[in-house]
Specification:
Residues 89-103 have a biased composition (Polar residues). The protein is mostly helical. 57% of the residues lie in helices and 11% in strands. The chain has helices spanning 3-13, 53-67, 75-101, 111-124, 135-165, 169-174, 190-201; strands at residues 20-27, 34-41, 44-50.
Length: 203
């Protein structure tokens, strides 16, 4: 609280006369003036100096409070409040300047929000599934493919030889045999061989 107001309230509470302030002197040049104020409360008197009348009056009231046995006022809190006001004004000014320099339509994200967005984005993007064949499966697939193609080509050649010559050297060389057909073509009739080959071809 202002020591001038505080001293006046104390006198009002005591139902005594209000403090009286008198300018004792003014000295110094215009740029560096010094004022001396005197305050009188009852029979007590105290003085205070300052660069202007208001400060000198304030210091005189503070000196009177100390002289009467009261605790000193706390101008620190007032100065802190003023600093807070200045800081708030500075923050508002800096915020306005930031808004003026930031292009419209562009929002600056905080690091926390940016990390959350990246985390959610990594969860939604799924890695495409790639199925790889093991060497064993690959060999089985290739062998079945080649065996099928070889069987079809050999079957065609064997059928042509049987129709033309009545015997098939190709069937004997590859060891072609079945339920009704053996490796020895002499013991199997050509008609049986044709029926067997037709069954394999699905005819």
């Amino acid at each position: 609280m202002n020591p001038i107001s505080r001293l006046a309230q104390i006198q009002q509470a005591k139902k005594e006369k209000e403090p009286k302030y008198v300018l004792l002197s003014q000295r110094g040049i215009q740029c560096r003036r010094e004022f001396i104020m005197q305050v009188k409360v009852g029979e007590e008197m105290a003085t205070g100096t300052g660069p202007n009348k208001k400060t000198a009056k304030r210091n005189a009231a503070e000196a009177m409070l100390l002289q009467l046995g009261y605790k000193a006022s706390t101008p620190v809190a007032e100065s802190a409040a003023k600093q807070g006001d200045v800081q708030a004004w500075t923050d508002q000014g800096s915020g306005a300047s930031d808004q003026s320099t930031t292009p419209k339509g562009i929002l600056h994200l905080s690091p926390d929000v940016y990390q959350e967005m990246e985390a959610s984005r990594s969860k939604t993007v799924s890695t495409p599934a790639v199925n790889y064949l093991t060497p064993k499966e690959l060999s089985q697939t290739s062998s079945s493919y080649f065996s099928t193609s070889v069987t079809q080509s050999c079957t065609t050649a064997i059928a042509r030889e049987l129709l033309t010559n009545g015997s098939s050297p190709t069937a004997e060389s590859v060891g072609f045999a079945g339920n009704n057909m053996t490796c020895s073509s002499s013991t199997v009739q050509p008609s049986k061989q044709l029926e067997y080959l037709a069954g394999i071809q699905g005819l």
